[in-house]
UniProtKB/TrEMBL annotation:
Protein topology in the membrane: Multi-pass membrane protein
Protein name: NADH dehydrogenase subunit 1
TM stretches of this protein: 60-85, 132-151, 163-185
Domain of life of the source: Eukaryota
Localization of this protein: Cell membrane; Membrane
Length: 188
């Protein structure tokens, strides 16, 4: 045994390499000889992995939409109240009353504006391609939200932590123009 160790060290190999190789050979022969045992292990592993996969999928169905809503809803509410602030400042500059009818100090005005927008009658040109004309603003809105996937909102609070985040942001934000072009083209 010592001679083998001296031989392996003289060939540039560590003394434990030969033992490791023999152990690997024994394990591979053992696995190939007991096929039935190996199949039962594979079945058990596959059942365990299926259960784990189901649990992960159920977590994914809940966690991913919760993360998305956790980022999108504050973003949309922030934009709505920034619009309210802009309207208040514009009213002050023009020396008139701003939005103050809905709620105290007009704080519910963004909700009233959103409700009005939802209930508005859809108007489309008579010669327009209806499906393209309706999908163009949706595409522009969705692309603007998808672009926010790589923007970190807080430490560790980012939907997609990719290495090419800036390139992704530029690429997606440049696609938003196509919604406007599609709406104009479809209105013929």
């Amino acid at each position: 045994m010592r001679e083998r160790a001296k031989d392996s060290t003289s060939q540039g190999q560590a003394p434990g390499d030969e033992t490791l190789r023999s152990l690997i050979r024994m394990l591979s022969m053992n696995c190939s000889s007991s096929g039935a045992h190996q199949l039962s292990l594979e079945r058990e592993c596959s059942l365990e992995s299926k259960d784990q996969l189901r649990k992960e999928k159920s977590k994914t169905y809940i966690a991913v939409p919760a993360e998305i809503l956790g980022i999108i809803l504050p973003l949309l509410l922030g934009v709505a109240f920034l619009v309210l602030a802009e309207r208040k400042v514009m009213a002050f500059v023009q020396r008139r009353k701003g939005p103050d009818v809905v709620g105290s100090f007009g704080l519910l005005q963004p909700l009233a504006d959103g409700f009005k927008l939802i209930l508005k009658e859809p108007i489309s040109p008579s010669s327009a391609n209806f499906s393209l004309f309706r999908m163009a603003p949706v595409a522009t809105f969705m692309l603007s939200l998808v672009a926010r996937a790589v923007v970190p909102f807080d430490y560790g609070m980012v939907l997609s932590d990719s290495n090419i985040g800036l390139l992704y942001l530029f690429a997606i934000s440049s696609l938003g123009v196509y919604g406007i072009i599609t709406a104009g083209w479809s209105s013929n």
